Amino acid sequence: MQRVALFFMMFWMLQPTTAGAVGPIAKGETLDLSRCVAIALERHPSILVAAGTLKAGESKIGQARSGYYPQVNGSTGYSRTEPISDSARGAAGGDAFDSYSSSVSLSQTIYDFGKTSTQVRIQELNRDSSRSDLANVRTQVIFAVSQAYYGVLQTRRNRDVNREVVGQFQQHLDQARAFFEIGTKPKFDVTKAEVDLSNARLNLLKAENAFRLAQVALNNAIGMPEAPEYDVADEPSFQRVEVDLEETLRRAYDRRPDLRSLAEKKRSLEESITLARKGYYPSISGNASYGWGGGSFPLDQGWSFGATLNIPLFSGFSTKYQIEEAQANLEVVAANDLSLRQTIYQDVKQAWLNLGAAADQVETAALSVRQAAENLDLANGRYASGVGSPIEVTDALVAASNAKTSYNSALYDYKLAQASLEKAAGGK
Description:
- By secondary structure, the chain is an alpha+beta fold.
- It has nine helices and six strands.
- The model is unreliable at 1-21 (pLDDT under 50).
């Protein structure tokens, strides 16, 4: 299994990895995105399935090439004949006798109007199609890992935000209790702060569970559902990147592995039509044999050789319908090719639009975080000076928490939009 993984990794390197990148996860290890991708490319079951399909396609090429080589067969046999007596006539049966036979035969196709070579080309094209399918599976796995990885980072940041909110509500409760004890604030402020703290703790429990679920999703994406506990490295801060739509579309049409797979299937079906038409043509084969036979040893010996011309005179219109079937399959693939090109345009355009929108949202959300922080400082200051209300502080805390959560969502939506655009364009 590891040898298969190493084979396709050497053949299809969508992104570079270090020599020591792939290997078991150590407990407590910190993984970055490239390390998670490398693990998935080695271990994910869908990649191993696609690699196995590719290997089976290579074997079919060898099977097709066997038509170039002679076929040698050997046989041996023994039989004993016992005559039957006719008791009614009083006739005695003849003597029993044994019969032995052995032979070695050879047959070789001399000329078949290119049928064998066409079959080889068909299998080679099918192999190439399977190779493109493997590349497509790799692209899908890389995107799934990126999606799960960013999900872990987002839920971890949200958990940290909720932890911070719990601490802030705890401080507000301590402050409200202190004011109540000296008689400057009513009991309502204390009760309100206690309720707010309980709600914040409940939200923290939900955020922690969401983080654990995201870790489970990442383990599954890298093909290690029972991976030991590990940490993930955060990605660099937001940096807007401008992408040329026309260039990305051109790259997608050139590099999308699913489109290449369809193109190779189309060429394979064109060769299948050629092969089906060759069913009208004759073929010439040669044969030779050498054998031993007789009823007693030493056996008699003999040999023969010759050639056969096979001319298809009538096959019940089988060849005609095989041609029609291959032509119909070619039309289906051509329609699928057109449909896929439309899908590629839609995927790239949507990902490009999402990337621009996500970048705008990150910038807006960052501004909201700064404004919410200033509003919270003002609310805390007003409450500490005795002119603010607990409701004002609660609203400001909730607004600050929501702003940070929205920023986290926008940030990782942007990173996921980058991954989506890369996937739509055919990978790195």
